[in-house]
Amino acid sequence: MEKQSPDWTDAMNLLTAHRQSRWTVKYTADRFFRFLCLGSVIFLGAVLGAIVLFVSETGFLVFRDVSLSEFFFSPHWDPEHGKYGAAVFIAGTLYLTLVTLLITTPISICVAVFIAEIAPPWLRQWLRTLLDLLVGIPSIVYGYLGATLLIPWIREHTGAPVGDGFLAAALVLSIMILPTITRITDDALCAVPNEWREANYALGGTTFQMIVRVVLPAAKSGIAAAVILGMARAIGETMAVVMVIGNVAQWGFDLVTPSSVLTSHIVMQILNVDFQSTTNHALYMMALLLLMISISLIMLIRRLRLKGGAS
Fold first, then answer.
1. Which of 14-23, 198-207, 257-266 has the lowest mean pLDDT?
2. Does residue 1 have a pLDDT over 50?
3. Which of 25, 48, 83, 235 is most buried, with most CB under 10 Å away?
């Protein structure tokens, strides 16, 4: 058996060393990427935990001076006389969200159905681009347009002395969240397999029957997630609401009476109070309520998406 030449042996050794070096580099890069991802998750969790802990710790201090029943059920907010009832703001937040969804949800679903099932391809692409642009418009722009155009229109056509209130806020929020709900609903409708549509036509069904009996039921989890995501944005919106709702601590269920919600009240009051005061603690408790609502809605969206994927 002939011995391998020194040159061949050296070449094999160099090739082996090169392969080992490449493997070491890939292994090191893989471990570094894993640690980077893990560190990012830990950092994100720590930041979220710190926010929740700080807001909770500061917010719960309000109950040293205010009872639970007074804070959650009293409509009287007058810090100068020791009254810290937040019922007006809590109920106002829920009421504004409800009115906004009642306006936005049917319109968003109809627009999404038109885009996904009826519109020609060129119009479909144009509408999707337009909705994406509307999502990126800053909220203060919507609020300014509402304050300068919508409120005078409401005052003129309803006879309201001011025009601020839940109606103006709900209309502004509806325009803001409509692109979000529409685009997510559009994606949910497009995820329905085309075979189901073809089966409907094969059985003699019409386009309307296909939409109502096949596509919408199949995409209900995605539509629900879109509505909840829109609700989360409506609850957390601040600047646009501040500019059109009136910011008065009173009931405004007739839609044209100035009122207030949690976000608008916090932003209007937070700069005028001492950090260690009961008023500041009450505002932090309102912020904690908003935070818990947002986290709950996000968890609900995740559950709906998992349920939709499993089905």
1. 14-23
2. no
3. 235
Q: Among 284, 299, 302, 283, which residue's Cα sits nearest to residue 52?
A: 284
CA 299 from centroid of its chain's CA atoms: 12
SS3 47: helix
* Amino acid letter for position 283: L
What percent of the chain stands above pLDDT 70? 91
End-to-end CA distance of the chain: 66
The CATH class for the domain spanning 70-310 reads mainly alpha
**If you average pLDDT over every residue of the chain, what do you get?**
88
- Dihedral angle over CA of 166, 167, 169, 174, nearest 10: 130
Cα torsion through 84, 89, 94, 96, rounded to 10: 170
Contact call for residues 183 and 116 (beta carbons, < 8 A)? no
In the block, residue with structure tokens 């997630």: 225
pLDDT of residue 7 exceeding 70:
no
C-alpha dihedral, 233 to 237 to 243 to 244, nearest 10°: 40
Q: Which residues contact 190 (CB under 8 A, 6 or more apart)?
A: 116
Beta strands (DSSP E) in the chain are 77-78, 83-84
* Domain boundaries defined on the chain: 6-64, 70-310
Phi first, then psi: give them for residue 246, nearest 5 degrees.
105, -35
pLDDT-based confidence at residue 307 (cuts at 50, 70, 90): low
How far is 116 from 103, CA to CA, in rounded Å? Answer: 21
Residues 104 and 118: their CA atoms lie apart, in Å, by 20
CA dihedral 143, 72, 52, 239 (to 10 degrees): 10
| Token pair recorded at residue 139 | 């909220």
In the numeric block, the tokens 């932090």 are attached to: 284
